[in-house]
């Protein structure tokens, strides 16, 4: 462990050198392009313009804006630029509601009306499935928008850092700040710097209250914030989960190497417990590694339970600190209703639910199926899935933990039966080729493919196209004000 930490620390100066050299290169004279009309929306939430056949990607603008663009980076066929002056504002533009807009890197589409966001998300799904998938497609259903466009998330993570990011305005003021500690979000492209967040509009305001109270307590008592370069400091990360049942989970992540560090950690945990009695699950993780991942670490209970519950259609779902659960609870219900509809279950089917997480979809459809077999990589999530079945009196589910490509084999299918329907909800990378091969060999009557990345979904649809025809497409917006979109596809065996 010591050797690993030493490598991390030794790498920090190299990163500093790289950052300085990149900055030096970018200072080279690049053109200012005047009165450029923004024409379209591109990938990763950026907009696009064209000047003399040069494609230019621009953040925080919308189609119809007429702007002066300062080019920041130029390649042979494209460039990246920022808007430095607005000549005309697009009628599609709306006033961003967050004071951190344009700096934190999240919610990049706040400046675009929600109606237009949905249009572009629908287009994104269509473009990916036609250009990448190149398969025969039915008419797409209109995208399902989210009823809530603010305070819709049930989970956020905030990072503590002793290197607060200064905005351009703050830098221009040339003020020396006494307090350079911050808790908030990482700045894109600056691995060790964090933007101090005052109010985030993504999660219920209790999240802001807890984060700011912990921050102020740490300031007042001079608690050390983590230094990502030197790997020193007590406070590393705080995760806050809210639920549709009104329960509240907080997980504090700290580096603790001695008794004094443990005393301080317990002190700030007690402060949270006293200040926010509505917290039903208060936990902590001692993390002395170089990264913030906790999958391989123990999460300890300080007060309350080691879980919270989500509720959907009368079903209760146990969610632990390591569990995956869709971060937009209300819209997740609409997503799963689509998946269930596309499965067309009659009560007689054997269903495989791949990448089952905490068994949400598996348990959601179990009442309409003969049997559901769920597979998931995270062992803790599978334990929750089993508990969720027991909680809801569901006795026709089986769950297995392990890497999908290692678990889902021809031997597994021979043992558990050939599925009539497969529901798959893979991570952004899509499905492994071995998994697709097993699905093709199993030949289920129907596949329901839920995806958070239409590009990798399109790639997988092409691989399935020999045996399966796409019969329905339903985009779903889970993340307003971002470019991300979910998509559900129904495939029928040819």
Q: What is the molecular shape?
A: globular
The CATH class of the largest domain is identified as Alpha Beta
Kindly, what is the distance between the CA atoms of the first and last residues, rounded to a whole number of angstroms? 54 Å
Report the sheet with the most strands, covering strand number, pairing sense and barrel closure. Answer: 7 strands, mixed
The CATH architecture of the largest domain can be given as: 3-Layer(aba) Sandwich
The rounded Rg comes to: 24 Å
Q: In what range is the share of β-strand residues?
A: 25-35%
CATH T-level topology of the largest domain: Rossmann fold
> Superfamily at the CATH H level of the largest domain?
Vaccinia Virus protein VP39
Give the low-pLDDT segments: 21-26
Q: What is the helix content?
A: 25-40%
Number of helices: 12
Number of strands: 22
Order of strands across the main sheet: 9-8-7-10-11-12-13
Structure description:
- It is a single chain.
- This protein has 494 residues and is α/β, with parallel strands linked by helices.
- Helix content is 30%, strand content 28%.
- The chain has 12 helices and 22 strands.
For this entry, give a set of tags:
494 residues; alpha/beta; Rossmann fold; OB fold (Dihydrolipoamide Acetyltransferase, E2P); 7-stranded mixed beta sheet
Quick recap of the structure?
The chain is of the alpha/beta class.
SSE order and pairing:
Layout lengths: L1 H25 L5 E6 L2 E2 L5 E5 L2 E5 L7 E9 L3 E11 L25 H20 L21 E7 L6 H6 L8 E6 L2 E7 L9 H15 L14 E8 L5 E7 L4 H17 L5 E6 L13 E5 L3 E5 L2 E5 L9 H15 L6 E5 L5 H6 L5 E6 L2 H13 L5 E5 L2 H4 L2 H7 L4 E4 L8 H10 L3 E6 L2 H11 L3 E9 L9 E8 L1
Parallel strand pairs: 4-6, 11-12, 16-17, 16-19, 17-18, 19-20
Antiparallel strand pairs: 1-5, 2-3, 3-4, 5-6, 7-8, 7-10, 8-9, 10-11, 12-13, 14-15, 20-22, 21-22
Helix pairs in contact: 2-12
């Amino acid at each position: 462990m010591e050797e690993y930490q030493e490598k991390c620390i030794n790498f920090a100066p190299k990163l500093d050198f790289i950052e300085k050299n990149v900055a030096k290169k970018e200072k080279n004279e690049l053109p200012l392009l005047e009165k450029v009309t923004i024409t379209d929306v591109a990938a990763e939430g950026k907009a696009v313009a064209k000047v003399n056949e040069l494609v230019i990607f621009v953040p925080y603008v919308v189609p119809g804006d007429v702007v002066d663009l300062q080019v920041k980076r130029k390649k042979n066929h494209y460039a990246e630029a920022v808007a430095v002056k607005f000549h005309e504002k697009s009628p599609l533009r709306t006033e961003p509601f967050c004071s951190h807009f344009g700096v934190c890197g999240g919610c990049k589409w706040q400046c675009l009306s929600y109606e237009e966001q949905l249009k572009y998300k629908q287009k994104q799904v269509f473009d990916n499935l036609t250009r990448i998938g190149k398969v025969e497609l039915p008419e797409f259903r209109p995208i399902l928008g989210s009823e809530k466009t603010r305070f819709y998330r049930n989970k956020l993570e905030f990072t503590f850092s002793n290197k607060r990011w200064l905005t351009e305005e703050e830098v221009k003021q040339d003020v020396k700040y006494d307090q350079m500690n911050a808790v908030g979000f990482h700045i894109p492209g600056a691995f060790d710097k964090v933007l101090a967040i005052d109010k985030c509009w993504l999660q219920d305001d209790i999240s802001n209250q807890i984060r700011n109270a912990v921050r102020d307590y740490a300031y007042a008592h001079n608690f050390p914030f983590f230094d990502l370069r030197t790997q020193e400091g007590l406070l590393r990360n705080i995760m806050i989960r809210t639920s549709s049942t009104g329960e509240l989970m907080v997980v504090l992540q700290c580096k603790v190497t001695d008794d004094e560090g443990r005393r301080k950690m317990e002190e700030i945990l007690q402060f949270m417990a006293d200040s926010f009695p509505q917290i039903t699950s208060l936990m902590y993780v001692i993390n002395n590694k170089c990264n913030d991942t906790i999958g391989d670490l123990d999460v300890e209970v300080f007060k309350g339970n080691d879980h919270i519950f989500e509720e959907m259609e009368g079903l209760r779902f146990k969610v632990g600190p390591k569990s995956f659960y869709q971060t937009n609870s209300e819209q997740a219900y609409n997503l799963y209703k689509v998946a269930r509809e596309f499965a067309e279950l009659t009560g007689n089917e054997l269903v495989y639910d791949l990448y089952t997480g905490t068994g949400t979809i598996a348990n959601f459809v179990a009442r309409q199926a003969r049997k559901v077999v769920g597979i998931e990589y995270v062992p803790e999530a599978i334990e929750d899935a089993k508990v969720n079945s027991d909680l809801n009196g569901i006795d026709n589910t089986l769950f297995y933990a392990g890497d999908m490509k290692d678990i889902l084999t021809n031997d597994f299918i021979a043992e558990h039966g050939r599925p009539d329907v497969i529901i798959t909800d893979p991570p952004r990378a899509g499905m492994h080729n071995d998994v697709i091969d097993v699905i093709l060999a199993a030949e289920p009557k129907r596949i329901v493919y839920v995806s958070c990345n239409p590009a990798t979904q399109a790639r997988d649809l092409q691989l399935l196209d020999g045996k399966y025809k796409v019969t329905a497409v339903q985009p779903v917006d889970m993340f307003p004000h971002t470019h991300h979109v979910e998509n559900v596809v129904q495939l029928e065996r040819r």
